[in-house]
Amino acid sequence: MILAKVPPLCSDYHMAPGESPSLERVPNATFLPQSRQFRTRAVRSIVVITDYDDLLTNAISAVFGRFGKHIKRKGPLIRLLPMLGAFIIFGPGCAVTRHPAVDVKRELEAMLDTDQSQRSEMEEVGTKYGHNSPEMRELWKRQQPIDDANIKRLVEIIEKNGWPARSLVGDKGATAAFLVLQHADYAYQKKYLPLVRAAVAAGEARASDLALLEDRVLMREGKKQRYGTQLKGNDKGAWELYPVEDEANVDTRRAAVGLPPLAEYLKQFGLQYPSK
Length: 276
What we know:
58% helix
C-alpha cells in the first residue's frame, strides 16, 4: 500500500508567509497534481492507493483526460508508467515550493535576536558603570563582530531581493532589517536610506523607523537632527539630546511619523525636556 499526500489547492503552497500554514507543515513534501479521482477519494489530505499502477493511471487521467483512459487499457504500456509518473510529478504537476521570503524572514528574525541580545545588557551596564566604562567597552567589543556579520548578510539580501518588505517578512523581520542598518556604519546607512524611504512610501516600512535612520545620518554628517531621536554622551558619561533643527516644531514632526512627544521620549533616558 502506498500513501500519497494531496494538497487541497496547488496555489496554497505559493502564498506569502503567514497566509498558509501548509508552508510550515510540509516544507519537503512533493505532491502529485490533483485529479477528480484524487479529490473524491481524499480523506484528510491522504489518498490510499492500492498499487503503483493505480497511482499512475489516476495521474494519467488527471493530465491526459479522456486520452488517458485509452492508455490505461494498454496492458504492456502500464510498465512504462514510472517514467511518465516522474514527468508528471516533476514536470507540469504541482509541487510544494518554499516561498523565498520564508527563509529570509526566519534569517532576519534570527539576526534581530543577535542584534538585541547584548544591547539589552548594555542598558543595565551603562546605567551601573557608565557608558564609557571598561565593562561597556567589553560589551561593544563582543557586539561589533555580530553587527559586522549582520550588515554583510543584510546587504546580500538587499542586493538580491530589494529592501525586505514588511508584507513578506513580517513586522519582526522588517524591524530586524531596520535595526541592522541603524547599527551599521554611515556608508551603509547613506547608501540604503533611499530604499527605506521608498519602502515607507509603499507602506512596507514604518515611518518612525525612517525618522530614526534619517536623524542618525544627519548626526553623523554633523548636521542637526529633525525628529530628536538621537542622544549623545557628554563628558560626564551621561546622555544628552543631540541638537535639533527647528526645535519649536519638533513634536509636530514626531507626531506625523507616529513618534510620541519629545519630553515623553526623553523621560525614558532620565532626561527632562525642556531642560532647566
